[in-house]
């Protein structure tokens, strides 16, 4: 253990444990999934940063959205995000989830992802290399230290607005609201 | 290829044939004789249906349907000398009455292609067992692959009109 961080561990052990054990669920949209196999295997070895891929969203706390999001894949993304246990963090890859990227005028690619689910960080690039993914993860550590990676809290607070946006895009949704009004309070 | 060209010309009217390369033949025909030409070619050994596609020629007010066939090399020894041979069959239908007959009776694997063309171009295939949505999630007024579908306008009207969470909050605060 790093001696400089002992005070941090004693202060807030839960947060530190979250920080160094990211269990990742990938959503394989678009081109970004090509970067994932080299970064989780021996060439770049994501496990030295405490990142490990898991099978299901119910075991995960980091959600990587790798590439553009079409309207059809947005539904499973929302469902996956809602299944993950708190605290959970979302990182979106590339320029497409930010503003549509090269698909800015596509008939079925949504232009900005953070209208539908909260996004804690974006990694710029088209596509970002595995080094950029790890830099993004270290930035996420800093954000967690400063309590700024609060996407899951925002999702709970503003769930009415997120749900309204999702319903404006899809019409009626197939699943009931995640939080009732009592839960939000 | 040249033998097949002669045979096709002798047995069908309304057929225009080009051979741009050694292994490729383009057959342009009227829509009435598509089914008979396809079944004829299938008998001749071109029994691999590779692709069905569609083009929107908005200036001519027509859709162009394209069928690509090729032969399995093992079956016919005469095709083995110069590699795989493709036949491209083209036909045109009018844009207003976008209707055509399905070719599932001849090539069964045309089903997903026809579903996709129905979804993207709005062409109705008579006799198709299920023309249900295949790829798209939303309903579109104009099918999205038609040339008169304005993507910029569509993006503005749907994705652009959805407010961000900050704007939603502001609205709510102003109301209360």
The residue-averaged pLDDT of chain B reads 86
SSE-based structural type of chain B: alpha/beta
- State the CATH class of chain B: Alpha Beta
Superfamily (CATH H level) name of chain B: NADH:ubiquinone oxidoreductase Nqo5 subunit
Topology pattern of chain B, helix = H, strand = E: HEEHEEEEHEHH
Strand order of the largest sheet of chain A: 2-1-3-4-5
Count of DSSP-assigned helices of chain A:
9
* CATH topology annotation of chain A: Rossmann fold
CATH class of chain A: Alpha Beta
Oligomer: heterodimer
Strand order of the largest sheet of chain B: 1-2-5-4-3
Produce a short descriptive summary.
The complex is a heterodimer of chains A (185) and B (176). Chain A is of the alpha/beta class.
Write structural notes for this entry.
The complex is a heterodimer of chains A (185) and B (176). Chain A has 185 residues and is an alpha/beta fold. Chain A has helices at residues 6-11, 13-19, 36-40, 71-83, 96-99, 130-145, 151-157, 159-170, 181-184; strands spanning 22-27, 51-53, 62-66, 89-93, 121-123. Chain A has one domain: Rossmann fold, CATH 3.40.50. Chain A is built from nine helices and five strands. Chain A has a five-stranded parallel β-sheet. In chain A, helix 3 (36-40) links the parallel strand 1 (22-27) and strand 2 (51-53). Chain B is an alpha/beta fold. In chain B, strand 6 (99-101), helix 3 and strand 7 (124-126) form a beta-alpha-beta unit. Chain B has one domain: 2-Layer Sandwich (Beta Polymerase, domain 2), CATH 3.30.460. The longest helix of chain B is centred in the middle third of the chain and has 11 residues, at 111-121. Chain B has five helices and seven strands, in the order H-E-E-H-E-E-E-E-H-E-H-H. Chain B has a five-stranded mixed β-sheet with strand order 1-2-5-4-3, with helices on one face. Chain B has a two-stranded parallel ribbon with strand order 6-7. The interface between A and B is medium-sized, with 24 and 22 residues.
């Amino acid at each position: 253990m790093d001696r400089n961080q002992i005070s941090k561990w004693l202060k807030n052990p839960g947060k530190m444990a979250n920080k160094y054990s990211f269990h990742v669920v990938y959503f394989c949209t678009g081109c970004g999934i090509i970067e994932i196999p080299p970064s989780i295997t021996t060439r770049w070895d994501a496990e030295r940063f405490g990142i490990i891929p898991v099978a299901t969203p119910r075991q995960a706390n980091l959600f990587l959205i790798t590439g553009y999001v079409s309207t059809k894949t947005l539904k499973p993304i929302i469902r996956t995000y809602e299944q993950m246990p708190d605290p959970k963090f979302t990182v979106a890859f590339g320029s497409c989830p930010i503003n549509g990227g090269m698909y800015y005028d596509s008939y079925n690619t949504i232009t900005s992802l953070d209208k539908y689910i909260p996004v804690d960080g974006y990694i710029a690039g088209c596509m970002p290399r595995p080094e950029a993914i790890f830099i993004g993860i270290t930035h996420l550590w800093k954000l967690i230290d400063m309590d700024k990676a609060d996407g899951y809290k925002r999702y709970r607070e503003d769930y009415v607005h997120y749900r309204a946006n999702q319903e404006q895009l899809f019409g009626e949704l197939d699943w009931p609201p995640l939080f009732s009004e009592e839960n939000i309070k | 290829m040249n033998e097949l060209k002669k045979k096709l010309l002798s047995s069908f009217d309304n057929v225009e044939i080009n051979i741009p390369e050694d292994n490729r033949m383009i057959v342009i025909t009227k829509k009435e004789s598509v089914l008979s030409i396809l079944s004829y070619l299938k008998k001749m050994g071109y029994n691999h249906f590779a692709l069905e596609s569609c083009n929107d020629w908005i200036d001519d007010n027509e859709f162009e349907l394209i069928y690509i066939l090729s032969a399995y090399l093992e079956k016919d020894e005469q095709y083995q000398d110069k590699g795989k041979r493709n036949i491209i069959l083209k036909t045109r239908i009018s844009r207003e009455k976008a209707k055509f007959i399905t070719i599932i009776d001849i090539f069964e694997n045309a089903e997903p292609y026809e579903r996709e063309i129905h979804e993207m171009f709005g062409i109705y295939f008579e006799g198709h067992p299920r023309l249900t949505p295949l790829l798209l999630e939303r309903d579109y007024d104009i099918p999205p692959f038609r040339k008169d579908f304005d993507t910029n306008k569509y993006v503005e009207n749907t994705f652009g009109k959805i407010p961000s969470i900050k704007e939603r909050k502001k609205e709510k605060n102003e109301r209360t």
